[in-house]
Amino acid sequence: MNEVAAQVDARTAELATNLSALLQRVDAACLAAGRAPDSVRLLPVTKFFPAEDVAILYRLGRREFGESREQEATAKVAALPSLVRQDAESDEGLPDVQWHMIGRLQRNKARVVARWAHTVHSVDSERLATALDTGARTALDVGQRSEPVRVLLQVSLDEDPSRGGVAPDDLARLAEHIAASTGLRLSGLMAIPPLGVESDAAFARLATLHTLLLAEHPGATELSAGMSGDLESAIQHGATCVRVGTALMGARPITSA
Ligand SMILES: *Cc1c(COP(=O)(O)O)cnc(C)c1O
């Protein structure tokens, strides 16, 4: 076996081991919370890792991937089809793959993201929503996508604007704005627990906000919460999607970004 193939095999074994451990963690957390195991989806977060790793996860059966930086993600979206082509149904892209944008999104990147994102988890302002809606409607018109962009509203649980997220008081108005946008589909909430706040308390607050949102928007069932270190707590509080990077991929390379 050549060296490259041996490296791919070793990485495949590592990701397969981590993946099965994580799926067991999710199942155990569902059991502990009295929830059905299929009520929570594991979203692999592949930021900072190469498209080759995404291809390995694809071969291991994963079809949803989370990315947090537009340029890096756009490049991986373009690279993946040829990396997995031998396994793909057709050679015209990968219709079964769903890409999630989970990181902060600048308005001037919204148009590009609207071409490839199945779901954006980080919408926190009307201006960003409007830009994403414009991009999504264009992409729909020219056939770059067939469905509206699913949108999760990122909520700030500490009202520290530097970390992103809409203040809870402004949530209802932003939800109305998105519900009225034809290129977008309001699908739920997302949050990252604030530094220094116990994750249990943060997720409990998020669950309360989700209940209020659901009363007005019954279709907004998604709750994106929980990462490598706190997914059990998030599942206890109703998460439907846990975003896991480190526990699956390993430590991210040090970066200043
Ligand atoms: C990187 C990232 C994650 C994954 O975090 P881990 O602790 O590595 O699992 C989840 N959500 C967001 C928004 C991220 O940027």
Main attributes?
alpha/beta, TIM Barrel, two-stranded parallel sheet, binds pyridoxal-5'-phosphate, Ala_racemase_N, PyrdxlP_homeostasis, pyridoxal phosphate, Pyridoxal phosphate homeostasis protein, pyridoxal phosphate binding
Which architecture would the CATH scheme give at its second level? Alpha-Beta Barrel
- Multimeric state: single chain
Which value, in Å, is the CA radius of gyration? 18 Å
Let me know the average pLDDT.
94
| General shape | globular
Question: What topology, given as strand order, has the largest sheet?
Answer: 2-3-4-5-6-7
CATH fold description: TIM Barrel
Give the % helix.
Answer: 40-55%
Count the beta strands. Answer: 8
Class by SSE composition: alpha/beta
* Beta strand %: 15-25%
Domain count: the total is 1
Number of helices: 9
Q: Tell me, what is the CATH class?
A: Alpha Beta
Could you give the distance between the termini? 37 Å
User: In CATH, what is the homologous superfamily?
Assistant: Alanine racemase
The small-molecule ligands in this entry are:
pyridoxal-5'-phosphate
Q: Order of helices and strands, N to C?
A: HEHEHEHEHEHEHEHEH
